[in-house]
């Protein structure tokens, strides 16, 4: 083993959590998108490390799917952000409370 | 006697709905009176069909007749099973007898969305007939809930000023009780599987269940009975579950009030008699003092409150609370006199309260007010009206010779044999009932006239509405045996169930 | 002749009611124009009553020829209620007791119908009046002929209904309508007791018909307590109908109705229903000595109290009303000491002379153009000589002067009362003196002395009003010979009902008779002397007491506050507090609880997506954690 698997996995988990917290706590839409990318990359890394640990190629195959998915999803997401910004002139999520019950 | 096929009962039950949905296809711009006549025709046909039912009914054994049974949902054992016996026969006849009256009395008072109005009345009739006839517990529940929907719309669309509040209150209040009954029904179905091994919701199968009763308050039979009893007690309405009634009655249109008072209130009593008593006899005996006390108190309480009313319809609504207290008092006395008297009281309260609401509706149509203080000395201005009003007042006061006397006499006699104290309290209702009814009559009909100008006396249609009711009231006062003869064996069966446990 | 004739006798007034009533309803009520005169309507009514009367007296004379056990005519009727042990038939039974009552009712009824033709001549709705009168007679006949409790109750409530209709006959006056309502409601209080008594009879003896009940009572053991309760409760019913303390308050107010009504219903017939019931059930009451004791004392006190109020009344009809209450007290006094025959005797004589007095008063009122205040009358002897003569006969009868009828019946009661308890006798004699006093006052103020009505032109009444007076006068004089002591035909006649009559020991009779007549005469003399120089403006002898009595002892006001106002307060409280605030408040509270819970949960819906994501995450964590816990 070059690197012990537990270090690798905890590293990936850490990155995933950072991404998750970013999605939950940040107010800027673009930052949220970037955090989602972070989460997806952490997932990729997790797949690769498991594939290395278990000596199974299927993990690395999944990585390809995830990368393609992440790319298309961020393209759609950026398009949505642009459309939103054009109408609302802000990317602050706290300004988007339209689902709230008006008191 | 000639017997048609057993599905005559199903035909009778669903014919009003069918006819009503026919009327939905008619063009909107026809006159309101045409829709009324069309609906009236349908209800008359239903009445004739029910007369065929009556003719073919013998009532010698206490068994169900005109039974129509089909398996519906096999996995749950839910059957479509309907039938009549002595208990349901007269209530079915009361229903089919009364709906034409309700339809006819709305001829001149309903002008908007007329088609839907008559459709809803006919749909309501289907619901009521189905509830009276169903012999499968789940089917009964379906019809029970199905009655609420047309009534909700009737009150909510064609009602008075606070109709939304009243219809919501009525709907939700009744629903809450029914939901507890539903859970009780589910438990019964579960017990059926546990004890007998197969699914069934048929009443005859559920009667064979052995449910544990006893002295401990929270035994299964008591809890199940309470679940059923809450739904029925709300419907009766039994004190203290009666507060939906004044609002619902006051805000409902005349036909709605008539049907509500005449028939829907009887559902509660019928439910007790048909389902709660045979299924849970020990629980009934356990709670007997409580219900007798509540019934006796309701008699007096309803009469006291009715005395303080200034709104005519509220007064009659509270008088209904008072009269239905007699029903509960009689039912829970658990002897032949009390139970048959309670049933008879249900029939004649239908007639009396229906007539009273019809008359209040007639006054409202003329003057657009329900305040008692706005009327006075009507005997001079509307003599025919006041004659009928007085005759119905006599019935409400239970003068011998009217049907109410037979009902109250038998109830109080039966209750006396079980619990003299509650019977005495109920008998004081004789005094208080006369107080508020006679005060009401005196304020409206007697005294100097002059408060209401130009109120016309009864039209021919209105006389035609009131005459059969008054004739029925007085003839029922002298010929109760005619009704009892068909009922005796069915009540005898219920009696036997109780005697096993006494 | 037979049971069908008996049914016919009962149905004749019903036919009169139908003809007059339906005729009025269909032809007159809407048009408000008098369509047929009181002569037409009245003739129909009177004819029906006369047919009934003829049949009744025919039966009576037939019975006279039969031996005592055979004086029974039964009509089985049809089965009214048939429910297991409860078998009630609408049957009628004519026997010695009921034949007496039937004769009196039909005779007095016919006379009053005839009288009303003249009295109600100017009334705009005579058809209605005679319909109601006939209906009343129908129900009264059912009451006395009924052979079981429910049938009697049918008649009982029926006469209460007709009383309500007739008292409130001039309904345009709200006060008169309310007087009718008061009568009905006070009667209902009595009916409450009646019903409870009936229930107890059924649960104790298993039957509601009188003849089987008699056999059951005679053969029953161990039911003494029940019998006491039964009789007590039934007596409450009698108190309501026959106006004993405290349920007498409706009778004076009932004078709001037309005078023939007061004469028929509130003097001769309806108010005697209580005594009829007690006599009919004497086999029960004799087994309940406490109840009889109470009955006697209640009767005595009622007699005394009512007489004291009558001393100071100004209205001519109110004097007679309180006099009726007082005489009813006498009847119950008689029944209470076990002398049911004496009670019935007084019923019969009272029916005649009280109806006479009322009809005479009506004649006076009619002649004085609706004036009813005694202080404004006087000297009518000259203007209404025939009325004066007849009323004089009634006056002498009621005062108990021999050989008029009232003397015999009252003396019989007093004689038995003495053997019951000397206190009762003392009260009875004092009341007799007071009766003589106020009746003489009434007679004097109305007919004798100077005229105080100079401006009013008084006319004597027509023959159709005078003839009933003459017939009643005849009976007031001679009816007493039915019950001469020790040769009482009446006691003998009533033996099948009452059992063999007990003859009280002989000794005290003549002195007692002498004392009671002396008391009456003294009362009359004192009254004469007091009212000879009568001046309405002069101050009274005992002003405060007189004021108190003139306002009827403030009983009405007291009971009004105690019951009516209390009931109104209770009902308003029940409505506004119990119903609206508490029960409905609870229901609305439940619904507002649901609304508030919803409001609470609404706080979760912030509209910020990240909060929703957080909730998703937490849910995921919880379910994963639970799954892991279950697995491991």
* Major pleated sheet of chain A: none
What is the general shape of chain A?
elongated
Count structural domains of chain A. 1
Number of helices of chain B: 20
Please tell me the CATH architecture of chain A by its name. Orthogonal Bundle
CATH names the topology of chain A as Helix Hairpins
Ends of chain B: how far apart?
39 Å
Number of strands of chain B: 2
Shape of chain B: globular
Query: What's the assembly state of these chains?
Result: heterotrimer
Describe it.
The complex is a heterotrimer of chains A (103), B (502) and C (632). By secondary structure, chain A is mostly helical. Chain A has a single domain, classed as Helix Hairpins. In chain A, 76% of the residues lie in helices and 0% in strands. Chain A has 3 helices and no strands. With 502 residues, chain B is mainly alpha-helical. Chain B has a domain of 216 residues. In chain B, 74% of the residues lie in helices and 3% in strands. Chain B has 20 helices and 2 strands. In chain B, helix 2 packs parallel to helix 4, helix 8 packs antiparallel against helix 10 and helix 13 packs antiparallel against helix 15. Chain C has a domain of 74 residues. In chain C, a hairpin with a 2-residue loop joins strand 2 and strand 3. Chain C is globular. Chain C has 26 helices and 4 strands. The N and C termini of chain C lie far apart (104 Å). With 632 residues, chain C is mainly α. In chain C, 73% of the residues lie in helices and 2% in strands. At the B-C interface, helix 6, helix 11, helix 13, helix 15 and helix 16 of B face strand 2, helix 5, helix 6 and helix 25 of C.
